[in-house]
Design brief:
Layout: E1 2-3, H1 5-13, H2 15-20, H3 24-44, E2 52-56, E3 59-62, E4 67-74, E5 81-87, E6 99-104, E7 109-116, E8 122-134, E9 140-155, H4 164-176, E10 187-194, H5 206-211, E11 216-222, E12 227-233, H6 247-264, E13 268-274, E14 278-282, H7 290-298, H8 313-320, E15 326-330, H9 337-349, E16 354-360, H10 363-370, H11 375-400, E17 404-408, H12 413-426
Parallel strand pairs: 3-9, 12-13, 12-15, 15-16, 16-17
Antiparallel strand pairs: 1-9, 2-4, 4-7, 5-6, 5-8, 8-9, 10-11, 13-14
Helix pairs in contact: 4-12, 6-7, 6-12, 10-11
Length: 430
């Protein structure tokens, strides 16, 4: 039960006879009138328990978009329903009008539409709907909370998609370029041609040369249908916020751009999200739209406040691909993790695979390094300088192990990672 402002006004109006006729019978009479009016209003209100509620699920929406949650209310009582209804979406769902007034005649149906503008990625929920049914006098209401589960999956926005056309043009130029003399594990035989000065003598096809009067060499082109394994770190380091966005979200953007680019380039893409257990997996052999499967798998991912189990990473990659692949590790280069697990893991993976380590660098470090006006700013600049030097040292160690490193600010990580993939493909290293 709930009382309204009208009942409060009526109770204040009851003070008038008390002032004019101050006596106990007057007090009793005023109280009886107020209670009778309250009870009568409650009895004449439609029962919230007898309403038939149905929800039309809003489905999926990207973080930059909006959706509508529709609740259908059928009045199965014999009285007209005058109600205030609240759809209990969590605050991050961004419900613009979660509380609405609804008038439903007996035996009829009305719809309540709530506009959702989500402010974070993931699965958002509304567990119930609260109905406050007002009486005809508007003095009191019968209130009841009814379970009516609703769910909205907010997909990653994929802002880095704007880089895709330019990267695809580079891939097409790579495929359409004249065949070059590249020898190694990352190439396919293309054709034969006459030897010219400067060609690698190891490319000479002696059998074809014996059948002709001139020396013939084999030409090679970058391979297609290679394996790309993207491993996204979902441990505690992924929870760090850089420019008001978790490091995990930047990793998701980079993984989406690389995966779509590699698929368009003819390669097979596998995605893993891992910390101490597998959080999500998308296999290249599965049927359907790869981008759609990736965003569905990435949407509910959250950073876990635990350490990454680096020793399990090679086994996870081996379970996906036993052959030579491009392994992309989207992780952090700070927090003490590199020396403890990243470097040994990269050393192990580099024996069989081509490895790229991609990490997000906080732009605040460069800003702190440049500000040295006051004493406190000098100390902060020194701390920033030390952090940058430590990252540079880890980067140098990773490159000595044979890995490629992408260490950039959030907006630069996705395109730079895509450029590294194209460069490796052009060099025949995949």
């Amino acid at each position: 039960m709930a009382i309204t402002g009208r009942f409060v006004v009526l109770a204040l109006a009851g003070l008038v006879p008390l002032v004019l006729f101050p006596s106990w019978p007057t007090v009793l009479l005023v109280c009886v009138v107020l209670v009778l009016a309250l009870v009568l209003d409650l009895l004449l209100a439609a029962s919230p328990a007898k309403l038939v509620l149905e929800r039309l699920q809003p489905g999926n929406v990207t973080l930059a978009g909006s959706a509508e949650s529709v609740v259908s209310v059928t009045n199965a009582t014999g009285r007209k329903l005058n109600a205030v209804i609240r759809d209990a979406w969590q605050p991050s769902a961004g419900a613009t009008n979660p509380v609405q007034r609804l008038a439903v005649p007996a035996g009829e149906r009305r719809r309540m539409t709530v506009t959702l503008v989500p402010r974070r990625r993931g699965d958002l929920e509304s567990p119930h709907v609260t109905i406050r049914s007002l009486g005809p006098l508007g003095l009191a209401a019968r209130q009841r909370t009814r379970p009516l589960p609703g769910q909205l999956r907010v997909l990653p926005p994929f802002h880095s998609k704007r880089h895709l056309p330019s990267k695809l043009r580079k891939l097409r130029e790579l495929d359409g370029r004249a065949a070059v003399q590249i020898r190694g594990a990352g190439t396919e035989f293309d054709s034969l041609r006459d030897y010219v000065r400067g060609d690698d003598v190891r490319s000479i096809d002696w059998r074809a040369t014996a059948r002709r009067t001139s020396v013939v060499v084999r030409t090679w082109r970058p391979e297609r249908d290679r394996r790309v394994v993207v491993v996204l770190d979902t441990s505690r380091t992924a929870a760090a916020r850089i420019e008001d966005e978790p490091r995990l979200d930047t990793g998701i953007e980079a993984a989406l751009l690389l995966a779509v680019l590699a698929e368009r380039g003819g390669d097979r893409v596998d995605f893993l999200a891992y910390d101490r257990r597998l959080r999500a997996r998308v296999e290249s052999a599965s049927k359907g739209n790869l981008l759609g499967q990736l965003v569905q798998a990435m949407a509910p991912l959250e950073a876990e406040l635990i350490e990454l189990d680096w020793q399990q990473i090679p086994g996870q990659v081996r379970a996906v691909s036993a052959h030579r692949s491009l392994v992309v590790l989207l992780t952090a280069l700070d927090g003490g993790a590199p020396e403890e697990g990243l470097l040994p893991t990269v050393a192990q993976l580099s024996r069989q695979h081509v490895v790229i380590v991609a990490s997000v660098r906080d732009p605040l470090l460069a800003a702190m390094k440049a500000e040295r006006t006051t004493a406190s700013q000098v100390f902060r600049a020194a701390a920033a300088e030390r952090a940058l030097l430590e990252r540079a040292a880890v980067t140098a160690q990773l490159r000595q192990l044979g890995a490629e490193v992408v260490d950039a600010e959030p907006l630069d990580v996705p395109p730079l990672l895509a450029d590294t993939y194209i460069r490796l493909k052009a060099a025949g290293r995949l």
